[in-house]
């Protein structure tokens, strides 16, 4: 059974960089049938697509966040990562990592989510 | 503001059917058959209920069905049950810029 697990600090100071890693177990991150994404959900609000990465390194970013976002993949560790720079309180959210089906562009597996709070 | 428009809330009694709409544009919902629906209970990660407009993943009840007409997709839940009470989100592939995937704002389903 595939599992995704987010890890990283739960508290980040304003203007600093948020860094999260997603560890994939029970399957290979190098599969050509899937790519890997980050999605966030501010408290009490809806879902927002942050971006995604294919195992080859190709990336797609939400234009509203593109200048601050970097998503990378480490196939040797079966992990992919998110960096979001210059964070503000508006970046406080539950961050989910996810497996996305190529073509269907839908998420069939989600991590449990991790709350990241931006506060001094 | 979300790229896809959903009603903020819908409600229904047990046993009834409800439909949640999801309106986009020709760059997303109307242009591709890549509409998905997710169910999210409080404090939980979303769960995929429908993909490719009308396909159900293995294990999802056949009480859930999806359809699309023009720029509007719909999720119908028949035989409402108390456990269906949750937030529902639609999503679609989009050819707009580098975004790739857009979500709706979410709909709160209340089972009366």
What does it look like?
The complex is a heterodimer of chains A (120) and B (112). Chain A has 120 residues and is mainly beta. Chain A is built from no helices and eleven strands. In chain A, the strands form two sheets. In chain A, strands 2, 4, 5, 6, 9, 10 and 11 form a seven-stranded mixed beta sheet that branches. Chain A has a four-stranded antiparallel beta sheet with strand order 1-3-8-7, with no helix packed on it. Chain A is globular, with a radius of gyration of 13 Å. The mean pLDDT of chain A is 95. With 112 residues, chain B is an all-beta fold. Chain B has strands at residues 9-12, 18-23, 35-40, 47-50, 64-69, 72-77, 86-93, 101-103, 107-111. In chain B, the strands form two sheets. In chain B, strands 1, 3, 4, 7, 8 and 9 form a six-stranded mixed beta sheet that branches. A three-stranded antiparallel beta sheet of chain B has the order 2-6-5, with no helix packed on it. In chain B, a hairpin with a 2-residue loop joins strand 5 (64-69) and strand 6 (72-77). In chain B, 39% of the residues are buried. The interface between A and B is medium-sized, with 24 and 25 residues.
Features:
heterodimer, A: 120 residues, mainly beta, seven-stranded mixed beta sheet, four-stranded antiparallel beta sheet, B: 112 residues, six-stranded mixed beta sheet, three-stranded antiparallel beta sheet, globular
């Amino acid at each position: 059974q595939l599992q995704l697990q987010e890890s990283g600090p739960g508290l980040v100071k304003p203007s600093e960089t948020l860094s999260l890693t997603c560890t994939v177990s029970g399957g290979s991150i190098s599969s050509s049938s899937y790519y890997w994404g980050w999605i966030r959900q501010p408290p009490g609000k809806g879902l927002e697509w942050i971006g995604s990465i294919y195992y080859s390194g190709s990336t797609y970013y939400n234009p509203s966040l593109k200048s601050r976002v970097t998503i990378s993949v480490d196939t040797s560790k079966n992990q992919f990562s998110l960096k979001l720079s210059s964070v503000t309180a508006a970046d406080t959210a539950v961050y989910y990592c996810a497996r996305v089906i190529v073509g269907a562009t839908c998420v069939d597996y989600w991590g449990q989510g991790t709350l990241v709070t931006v506060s001094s | 503001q979300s790229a896809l428009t959903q009603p903020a809330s819908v409600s229904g009694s047990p046993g009834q059917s409800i439909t949640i709409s999801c309106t986009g544009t020709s760059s997303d919902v109307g242009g591709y058959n890549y509409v998905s629906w997710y169910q999210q209970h409080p404090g939980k990660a979303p769960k995929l209920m429908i993909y490719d407009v009308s396909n159900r993943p293995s294990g999802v009840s056949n009480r859930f069905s999806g359809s699309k007409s023009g720029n509007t997709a719909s999720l119908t839940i028949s035989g409402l049950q108390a456990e269906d009470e949750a937030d529902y989100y639609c999503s679609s592939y989009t050819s707009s810029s580098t975004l790739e995937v857009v979500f709706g704002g979410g709909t709160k389903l209340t089972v009366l």
